[in-house]
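Note to self: keep these together.
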Amino acid sequence: MSWPQDGYAPPPVKEPASPRARIAGIAGTLLLLGGISVVGFAWMSQRHAPQPSASAAGIIGPALGRSLPRSVPVRVDIPAIGVDSKLLHLGVNADGTIQVPSLDTDAELAAWYKYSATPGQVGTSIIEGHVDTLQGPAVFFRLGALRPGNTIDVTLADGVTAVFRVTGVREFPKASFPAGTVYSQARYPALRLITCGGAFDYTTGHYLSSTVVFASLVSAKR
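Structure:
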């Protein structure tokens, strides 16, 4: 499966950029989770994932306050929708498209895009996950049910848990996805959670939209 392309350059990191990081910047890779579910669960059962309501649109940010030093994330916990997942660390494929968790073995796991900011750093951190598979709901099946005020806990490798508060939940057509809004470098510690959403195209076997959760850091704990 491949992602649509657009003008997304990964945020800079302190260490020298790897070849794959440079590929991601040159290719302008855009993480839309396009075609993240083949014809399967949605087609077979007609059970669809929750979609964001107009009342949940909220705001994108910013929020002012503390930030955290760079530390890679190892786990994400979203109590409101029952998500508790180890985080994979994924980059880009050889052709510059973003890697996604395997539908066969890792559909129940979310993934942090390793060329984005680490959660809690000033900048935009990206976590993505599948909405469903041939067998049923995947890790982010209920992402669209989140509402402003819900919390997202991201455990970091240094033992700190970064606590984010959802500020908005929105659905964007993939054909007109606002890459600048979703992926641009925030001037505060921002988190974006992304999965498929909207109508399901039975001809192509893909969802026509993406569900995006916008959140900002509010605290940290050990």
